[in-house]
Amino acid sequence: MRPSEHLVDPIAPAATAPARQRRKEARPQELLDAALALFVEKGFAAARTDEVATRAGVSKGTLYLYYPSKEELFKAVVRHNLGALIAEGIETLAAYPGTTAELLRYVTHTWWERIGATDAGGIHKVIVAEVRNFPEIAAFYAAEVIEPAHRLFRGIVARGIERGEFRALPVNEVAHAMIAPMIFLALHRHSIGACEVACGEPVEPRTLLDTHLELLLNGLARPAGTTPARKARR
Amino acid sequence: MRPSEHLVDPIAPAATAPARQRRKEARPQELLDAALALFVEKGFAAARTDEVATRAGVSKGTLYLYYPSKEELFKAVVRHNLGALIAEGIETLAAYPGTTAELLRYVTHTWWERIGATDAGGIHKVIVAEVRNFPEIAAFYAAEVIEPAHRLFRGIVARGIERGEFRALPVNEVAHAMIAPMIFLALHRHSIGACEVACGEPVEPRTLLDTHLELLLNGLARPAGTTPARKARR
Amino acid sequence: MRPSEHLVDPIAPAATAPARQRRKEARPQELLDAALALFVEKGFAAARTDEVATRAGVSKGTLYLYYPSKEELFKAVVRHNLGALIAEGIETLAAYPGTTAELLRYVTHTWWERIGATDAGGIHKVIVAEVRNFPEIAAFYAAEVIEPAHRLFRGIVARGIERGEFRALPVNEVAHAMIAPMIFLALHRHSIGACEVACGEPVEPRTLLDTHLELLLNGLARPAGTTPARKARR
Amino acid sequence: MRPSEHLVDPIAPAATAPARQRRKEARPQELLDAALALFVEKGFAAARTDEVATRAGVSKGTLYLYYPSKEELFKAVVRHNLGALIAEGIETLAAYPGTTAELLRYVTHTWWERIGATDAGGIHKVIVAEVRNFPEIAAFYAAEVIEPAHRLFRGIVARGIERGEFRALPVNEVAHAMIAPMIFLALHRHSIGACEVACGEPVEPRTLLDTHLELLLNGLARPAGTTPARKARR
DNA sequence: CATGAATGAGACTTCATTCAT
DNA sequence: TATGAATGAAGTCTCATTCAT
After folding, report:
1. Which of A38, B50, B51, C130 is the most buried (most CB within 10 A)?
2. Per-residue pLDDT reduced to its tens digit, B128-173
């Protein structure tokens, strides 16, 4: 029995499909999970491909059967973990019925549950850390993550201003101010926060996020009785 | 005492020494500058010691004469570039005569000029990126940078609340919210921002920082006519 | 008898067999063609077995069903492409009616059309290149190709001398001098000549071969009026 | 004592220069020699860099201190072993006082002594074998070896024709016919000839070369009483 | 017969650190 | 002090061969 064998569900032996087949279909997911964990833990350069393979329960060679290089593996991890959620957010923005404050809270909390609180949030760290050493990854990430994500948040700010809910502040800068603490939180959780060192009093991420949201919404709120700026989008 | 410890800030009184002597005493400074530039550009692991030496105009062996390892070199870089400013900030806080809003603006702008806008701001990136792989650096950084910096910002928030200028919000979280966009800006400048990829509309750091400050102060401001909370510190 | 041995020339009498059957019997031929092309293009070690399989339209596993190893596949390729022609040449020598000069021209031109001008000529390159790394292939090739081919050319030279057409030169060396430019031409075509680099003025292979032949025959020709040497064979 | 140490002359300990220094200067030569031997024995791709290093008595890393890659190492080997001699031949051609037949014999014999009979002759094999897989080597070799060598031999043929010693045959083809058997001999010596297989009756290289030369000169010789062709160069 | 997923040894290259000079 | 040659462990990626299906 090879060391990986016991990772397959040993209860239902090939009830629906032959074992080899089942493995083949599960492989990419297993590899992606192992790779995410390792990239987040060590960074892109320091993660070793054969540890990814070992954690996924396969040999080094098998990894390269599915992804032709470490870089492509990383890109697949990013697409799998961040790509879907951003698209979802953009759809939400288009169809959301409530106030923009509620929309922002919803998007932020969803992000926290699906990205911030999970390993996926560590991807930000990897990017921040190593993007300068891997230009191709930089281009890929800018195009497939940063650009769409900023579009989403700029959309939220613009909606608030157009609907007269927010003051007419510069859209781009405010979008940055919205995103920054979220990313920052994710970075923290996967760097210093992951170390066993005491640094200041501990903060509860949810509390931090809520403080951030209320501070932001308070700052954005149009003072009652002011005329809403209809064409504030820059 | 490890051999590097006394080298932290060796700008010594060599006013009348012969040229070669002065040269020798300038070595640590040159090495620290070269190391800072390289660590920020490539990260800790990817920076090559012999490139540090080359940039400082010495041989690889000489580097090891001054710093016993790459880690000690990095720690010296951190002490040299971040240590002084934090101590200075704490002194400012104790003696500042004006409003807390002014104090915050002053501290933030000073940080930008001395850290954020220079290579020193890249140290944050290096830490965020690689602290998990180098536990000793983690402990060092938490104790010598993060802890004092947080103490400073918590002090500012507490001052504002005690003086009735800010609302009685949780001190720790607000301090985080103050720091986050600053660090975030520094991280951005030295990672994605340093790449030649287009990602959203460009932002002017000073503008971003000012937007952040005003948003924050607006959110913190005690509505006129409210009773100041004297004992809000948690 | 090793499993591959009986597959050397399996073009079998499957005249009326159903399509799938014919397909199956065509397999070895398709594999041999793909293997020849690839061995000649990349060399023995650098040719990848799964590219051979892919080009032949089968899976990698199937290749190993027909040939137990890469070495056996290569030997089959050699037998299939060089074996027959040499035997044919020896028969021609025994029965040829014309002058020895004509015989040499005939043999040389036939070689060019069937070997030199085709992929089969590339086998020489592979042998020259890698025979030292694969002793078993060396022994095989010496016994099944080099030895018979030399026998043929020594026979031609001896015929010319015995019939008084050639001068009484050492048979073995002259045979070498006959073969060398042919092999050399084949080597060139499949190495440097196959690269897109400019190297000297290009040469037309047929012209080169003819120049070689005439030079050789001119050099071999017995000056008119000389007594032919009856027993010159060494 | 490291395994390489006894390769240094152990009799005169640092008489002229310190040991380390002596090693440094000798290194490139030692590495080049080891590399030549190994490339010729195994081919370019199959030769392992750490075996080159081991044979030169250094560690793997040291090799890369002197040559930045396997390809550059190979190019250095070619330049060192073939470059000089070709240049020398071109000078000889320009200044040679005797007949062209003598010049050709001289050049051929020098080639044999310095290249053909030594490991350097094996470089031809490596090129023939692997040039298609390494385009950069192809370009390098065409420019630095093939082109100059052909220029030399075309020069010899043209000289013979111009001086009325040779018949007015096409220069380029005759040059090829001159070179071919030489290269062929070298190839043979380092491929099949290096194997312990019996293939035909053995030939003495010098005899073969002389047979080739006489055959060639006989074929080239202008029949007595013929008018020399002054402008035959194509 | 046929498939193709899986293996794992092995190749080139990098780089922090040492140490003889 | 200062040098820089030398080391060797470690990392990514390849590919002939096997074997369960």
Report:
1. C130
2. 989 999 999 999 999 999 999 999 999 999 999 999 999 998 898 8
For residue D38, list chain C residues with Cβ-Cβ distance below 8 A: none
Q: Under 8 Å CB-to-CB from B71, ≥6 apart: which residues?
A: B134, B136, B137
Q: Residue D138 and residue C177: Cβ atoms within 8 Å? A: no
* Pair C47, C90 in one domain: no
Please give the tally of structural domains in chain D. 2
D129 neighbourhood in chain C, CB within 8 Å: 43, 125, 128-130, 191
CB neighbours (10 Å) of residue A141? Answer: 26
The pair of three-digit structure tokens given for residue C210, joined into one six-digit string: 């003819």
Mean pLDDT in consecutive groups of 10 residues from the start of chain D, 234 residues: 37 43 73 96 95 95 96 96 93 96 95 95 93 92 93 96 93 86 87 69 80 85 68 44
CB distance A85 to A145 below 8 Å: no
Is residue C172 helix, strand or coil?
A: helix
Where is the domain boundary, A53, A68, A83?
A68
β-sheet bridge partners, residue A166: A221
| Nearby residues of A26 by Cβ (< 8 Å), 6 or more positions away | none
Angle between helices C84-95 and C147-162 (to 10 degrees): 20
Do C99 and C63 fall within a single domain?
Answer: no
- At residue B166, φ and ψ (nearest 5 deg) are -110, 160
> In angstroms, what separates the C-alpha of A24 from chain B's closest C-alpha?
33
Instruction: Please say whether the dihedral angle defined by the alpha carbons of residues B9, B11, B12 and B13, taken in this order, is positive or negative.
Output: negative
CB C55 within 8 A of CB C29: no
Q: Is C218 on the interface with D (CB under 8 A)?
A: yes
d(CA D215, CA C178): 11
Domain of A78 in residue numbering reads as: 74-234
pLDDT of residue C44: 95
Write down the pTM of the prediction: 0.85
